[in-house]
């Protein structure tokens, strides 16, 4: 190793080193007017390549970034500071439940006891199986379900798994000709997609003037072709379906099953259970309700719960307790596997730790605070909220293009809400602050909403102006995406 390379590897500077700082034509590296070059724009070194591989698979030399450790560390630190995450501040995306992910769950997941190979025998992983069994039982108690599978690796995967369980049940009952899944117009898009992927025709159900399910329309739609009604409660407007018992009766009288989309379960913890409302199947979003990372922060997990009649169709393997020991088994009429082993194992560990830390009383406080925060924030902003009373989230109506409002909020240092959806609200701003945020942070959010509301259309159309990435041509980006750094 040369003296220069020795100095770089040990974090020492090299005399005479010059840093390239010429503006790059892409604006993605700007933040507050300060340019952050790419690593290969700073300093590079050409190294020779020696390999025993055939010549047509190798090159003679390679140009690599050639920087001291402090430069590399500062580069990535500056890039991280240009980003925004839940550790930076609130992310009030409606129906996403972007709550803070507590650090203690990471410590629990990192425990050496979790490093057990899944192919070890049941006898050699009793602690792991006990955790899985207790999490199954706990989720079942929270949701009012008789049996739970932990396998599906995301909420949408849980939906698809639940629909497959329903389909297997109908086929076993001699009802395999049922071809329709009813979905309210305000439902999450994954409901429509999951039903279609499972081979069903989707029947869209209109909302009534209060933003809830139109019961008369449901009565007209439900019939011998109905396999499922998929429902979120509270719905995406944050409204609790007051007619849920009548809804369940209509679906069951038609021979169908009632599916609960667990995206908004955070508002019901300790207060109400889907099973008690008449739901037959539900999925849990561990990465939402139980604060494990999701989105860019890590894999999700979407366990499903079912009533007793559907338990034999759950994916394999399941975990059960027998005379104080734990074993895996295959349900009698299982639909098979939907994921390797038990899904994303460490996500399950984090959710289990989160539930135990809070306990029954803590989970109830979560839902109470989530509802309180949403109602407080809605009362503080100037934008109209057309539907209520709501629970954990609300949908405001922007006076201007909701996308412009969202981009302008970035200039005020906060993450915007979900925009343009649900479509039954004009220029929707779908907002869910979660229980995580303090009153001071909610006041900051409200101030950002109001500052944008007072901004003129011309200025909104230019936003954002202070962020690393400026306004882009969204249509062109969607039609001609750049999927490699080589294209930048």
TrEMBL record:
<feature type="region of interest" description="Disordered">
    <location>
        <begin position="1"/>
        <end position="61"/>
    </location>
</feature>
<dbReference type="InterPro" id="IPR015421">
    <property type="entry name" value="PyrdxlP-dep_Trfase_major"/>
</dbReference>
<dbReference type="InterPro" id="IPR000192">
    <property type="entry name" value="Aminotrans_V_dom"/>
</dbReference>
<keyword id="KW-0663">Pyridoxal phosphate</keyword>
<dbReference type="InterPro" id="IPR049316">
    <property type="entry name" value="GDC-P_C"/>
</dbReference>
<keyword id="KW-0560">Oxidoreductase</keyword>
<dbReference type="Pfam" id="PF00266">
    <property type="entry name" value="Aminotran_5"/>
</dbReference>
<feature type="domain" description="Aminotransferase class V">
    <location>
        <begin position="176"/>
        <end position="295"/>
    </location>
</feature>
<dbReference type="InterPro" id="IPR015422">
    <property type="entry name" value="PyrdxlP-dep_Trfase_small"/>
</dbReference>
<dbReference type="GO" id="GO:0004375">
    <property type="term" value="F:glycine dehydrogenase (decarboxylating) activity"/>
</dbReference>
<dbReference type="InterPro" id="IPR020581">
    <property type="entry name" value="GDC_P"/>
</dbReference>
<feature type="compositionally biased region" description="Basic and acidic residues">
    <location>
        <begin position="1"/>
        <end position="10"/>
    </location>
</feature>
<dbReference type="InterPro" id="IPR015424">
    <property type="entry name" value="PyrdxlP-dep_Trfase"/>
</dbReference>
<feature type="domain" description="Glycine dehydrogenase C-terminal">
    <location>
        <begin position="367"/>
        <end position="452"/>
    </location>
</feature>
<dbReference type="Pfam" id="PF21478">
    <property type="entry name" value="GcvP2_C"/>
</dbReference>
<protein>
    <recommendedName>
        <fullName>glycine dehydrogenase (aminomethyl-transferring)</fullName>
        <ecNumber>1.4.4.2</ecNumber>
    </recommendedName>
</protein>
């Amino acid at each position: 190793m040369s003296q220069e390379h020795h100095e770089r590897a040990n974090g020492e500077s090299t005399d005479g080193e010059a840093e390239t700082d010429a503006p790059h034509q892409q604006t993605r590296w700007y933040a507050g007017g300060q340019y952050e070059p790419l690593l290969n724009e700073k300093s590079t070194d050409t190294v020779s390549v020696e390999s025993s591989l055939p010549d047509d698979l190798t090159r003679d030399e390679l140009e690599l970034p050639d920087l001291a450790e402090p430069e590399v560390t500062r580069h990535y630190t500056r890039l991280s500071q240009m980003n925004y995450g839940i550790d930076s501040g609130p992310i009030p995306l409606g129906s996403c439940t972007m709550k803070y992910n507590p650090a203690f769950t990471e410590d629990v997941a990192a425990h050496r006891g979790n490093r057990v190979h899944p192919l070890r025998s049941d006898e050699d992983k009793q602690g792991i199986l006990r955790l899985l069994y207790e999490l199954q039982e706990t989720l079942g108690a929270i949701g009012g379900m008789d049996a739970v599978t932990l396998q599906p690796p995301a909420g949408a995967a849980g939906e698809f798994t639940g629909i497959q369980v329903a389909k297997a049940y109908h086929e076993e009952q001699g009802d395999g000709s049922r071809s329709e899944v009813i979905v309210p117009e305000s439902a999450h898009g994954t409901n429509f997609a999951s039903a279609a992927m499972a081979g069903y025709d989707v029947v869209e159900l209109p909302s009534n003037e209060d933003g809830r399910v139109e019961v008369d329309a449901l009565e007209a739609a439900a019939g011998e072709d109905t396999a499922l009604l998929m429902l979120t409660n509270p719905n995406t407007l944050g409204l609790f379906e007051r007619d849920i018992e009548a809804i369940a009766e209509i679906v069951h009288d038609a021979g169908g099953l009632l599916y609960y989309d667990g995206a908004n379960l955070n508002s019901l913890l300790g207060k109400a259970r889907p099973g008690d409302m008449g739901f037959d199947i539900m999925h849990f979003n561990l990465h939402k309700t139980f604060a494990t990372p999701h989105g860019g922060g890590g894999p999700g997990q979407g366990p499903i719960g079912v009533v007793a009649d559907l338990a034999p169709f759950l994916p394999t393997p399941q975990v059960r307790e027998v005379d104080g020991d734990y074993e895996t088994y295959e349900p009698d009429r299982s639909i098979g596997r939907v994921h390797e082993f038990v899904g994303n194992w460490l996500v399950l560990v984090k959710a289990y730790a989160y539930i135990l830390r809070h306990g029954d009383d803590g989970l109830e406080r979560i839902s109470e605070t989530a509802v309180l925060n949403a109602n407080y924030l809605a009362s503080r902003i100037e934008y109209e909220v057309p539907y209520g009373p709501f629970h954990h989230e609300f949908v405001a109506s922007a006076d201007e293009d909701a996308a412009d409002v969202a981009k302008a909020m970035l200039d005020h240092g906060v993450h915007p809400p979900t925009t343009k959806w649900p479509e039954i609200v004009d220029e929707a701003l779908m907002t869910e602050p979660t229980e995580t945020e303090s009153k001071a942070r909610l006041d900051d959010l409200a101030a950002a909403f109001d500052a944008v509301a007072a901004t003129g259309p011309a200025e909104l159309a230019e936003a954002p102006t202070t962020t690393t990435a400026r306004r882009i041509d969204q249509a062109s980006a969607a039609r001609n995406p750049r999927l490699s750094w080589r294209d930048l």
